[in-house]
Amino acid sequence: MSLKKEFFGKTKAGEEIYKYWLENSRGMRAGVMNYGAILVNLFVPDKEGNMADVVLGFDTLEAYFGNGSFFGSTIGPSANRIGGASFLLDGQRYQLKANDGENNLHSDRDLGYHKRVWEVSEDENGIRLYLEDEDGSMGFPGNKKVQVNYALTEDNGLKIHYEVQSDKDTIVNMTNHSYFNLGGHDKGSICNHILTLKASAYTPILPGSIPTGEIVPVEGTPFDFRVAKRIGEEIDGDHEQLRRGSGYDHNWVLDGTAGELREFAVAVDPVSGRRMSVYTDLPGVQFYTGNFIGQEDGKTKTVYHARDGFCLETQYFPDTANKPEFPSAVFGPDKKYQSTTIYKFYN
């Protein structure tokens, strides 16, 4: 694997930001920047060997200073939603910013890890991005040392590995918020993509997108992707959960054993022939169909619209901080957070 570094701009505070280009021997390339540990580009071949960038995003650093859709972002310390923007841990109540109605979404829109400048080290396997986050930052306890590794494998996998060590018990639930369009970031709707999810249950939501606490079988519902089907086949169906999410914006409970790396999703674009398999060791995934993307000026003068990309955000379940019946996302001095997600491409 080769690695190149290019200047990408400066923050408002004058900090220099670089994009790091990772490339394997087969020509697959990923562009990752040290602002937000964001995946900016991902070039993969189609069935005829033609390369296309399959993640939504922007051409300039300045556009990422807003990035209300979180394109490509590393989300932390806690992805997804926490109900009431607070949680109780070890007998103490922690208050977060209410930035999604009365709830907390993705920790903090302005102070979260997707808006931080990370330190970078390079090696033959890829790049490692580091930051330190102090006790009380964004309302979360614990002084935290955070690391995200990006690497490309020779079988066209993008491997993302996370590690967090905290000196106090805290909530850690990191993810990558890339939006994929396997036809290319500029090819419009993803509703004709074919998706398989190895998940027999999901967590339904209340208004405001906080889970009810139930784990419900997908069988007989539009949430059943155990057999491959078009993403758009039932997305606008007459189902209360679809109305609440304006489409798919829910957590699926993955089959298999949490803690073990396993394939849980396969997505295919029938036009380009690109196929993506996704692996995780986490218990859940937020499948989001970009329902709330406004008209955004993206890369190469492309205007993005709702459902032009889809996310598979590997995670602990939303609001697990307030749901003791869900898998715990509490980590601390005696339990380091570690997780791996792989997006692997075929044609």
Outline:
Helices cover 3% and strands 41% of the residues. By secondary structure, the chain is mostly beta strands.
> Domains counted in the coordinates: how many?
1
Choose one word for the global shape: globular
- Tell me the β content: 35-45%
Helix content: under 10%
Protein architecture, described:
It contains two helices and 29 strands. It is an all-beta fold and 347 residues long. It has one domain (2-188, 289-346): Beta-galactosidase, Chain A, domain 5 (Distorted Sandwich), CATH 2.70.98. It starts with a strand and ends with a strand. The model has no long low-confidence stretch (mean pLDDT 97).
Layout of secondary structure:
Layout: E1 2-10, E2 16-23, E3 29-33, E4 38-45, E5 51-53, H1 61-64, E6 74-75, E7 81-82, E8 86-89, E9 92-95, E10 104-105, E11 119-123, E12 126-133, E13 144-152, E14 157-166, E15 170-171, E16 175-176, E17 194-197, E18 199-203, E19 216-217, E20 229-230, H2 240-245, E21 249-254, E22 262-268, E23 275-280, E24 284-288, E25 296-297, E26 303-304, E27 311-315, E28 330-331, E29 337-346
Antiparallel strand pairs: 1-2, 2-3, 3-4, 4-5, 6-16, 7-10, 8-9, 11-12, 12-13, 13-14, 14-29, 15-28, 17-20, 17-22, 18-19, 18-21, 21-24, 22-23, 23-29, 24-27, 25-26
Characteristics of this structure?
five-stranded antiparallel β-sheet, Beta-galactosidase, Chain A, domain 5, globular, nine-stranded antiparallel β-sheet, 347 residues, mainly beta
